[in-house]
Amino acid sequence: MILKLTFSAQPVYHSLTVLETPHVLVGVAIATKIPDPIIALPLAFASHFVLDVIPHWNPHLNTELIRYGHVTRKSTVIVAVDVAISLALGLLVALNFSQNSSHMLTIALGGLAGVLPDVIEGPYFFLKWRSKLIQRWLAFQKSIQTDTTVVPGLSTQLATIVAAFWWIAG
Question: What gap in Å lies between CA 33 and CA 18, rounded to an integer?
């Protein structure tokens, strides 16, 4: 399901995904506090869907696919920078807050588990893989999303990032 909003004569279609950094940081926070991967990794994965329900903002990749036939350069840059920040922060936490090498791996995998539902979508948006399975996955993801405008949407994501760091450091 694609959410269709009309603000003018031109309809706008929104892809509703949270930026990756909050997903990764909540995943690594869970794994930092719960070193058992059997418990931590499913919780990190589940946290993705909880965060998607919180109002947030993101680049509107579906809008761009419909309007231009591809994701714009601006959104590609936003996604690339967000992914780079996510990787750097996730590894920083794993290196600095792990109890041992096994826990370090669990923390890194917690970050991956937290973002995995969006990683599954990457080939659809950036490699033009339009399989029915990925399309059904996108429909499910969109059905649980809550989108909002830039300022409140980025504010909730910043608050999530701060809370994750607070939990990690606490």
Answer: 23
Looking at residue 10, what DSSP letter applies?
Answer: S
68 is written with which tokens?
């231009």
**The pLDDT of residue 162 is above 80:** yes
Q: Residue 51: pLDDT above 90?
A: yes
Q: pLDDT band for position 18 (50/70/90)? A: low
Q: What one-character-per-residue DSSP string does 140-170 give?
A: HHHHH--B--HHHHHHHHHHHHHHHHHHHH-
Mean pLDDT calculated for residue range 38-65: 92
Per domain, the residue ranges of the chain are 3-169
What's the pTM?
0.86
Radius of gyration of the chain, Cα coordinates, nearest whole angstrom: 16
Residue 124 to residue 120: CA distance in whole angstroms: 8
Q: Which helix (H) or strand (E) holds 22?
A: helix 20-33
pLDDT at 124 over 80: yes
Cα separations in angstroms, 24 against 6, 21, 129, 133: 32, 5, 24, 24
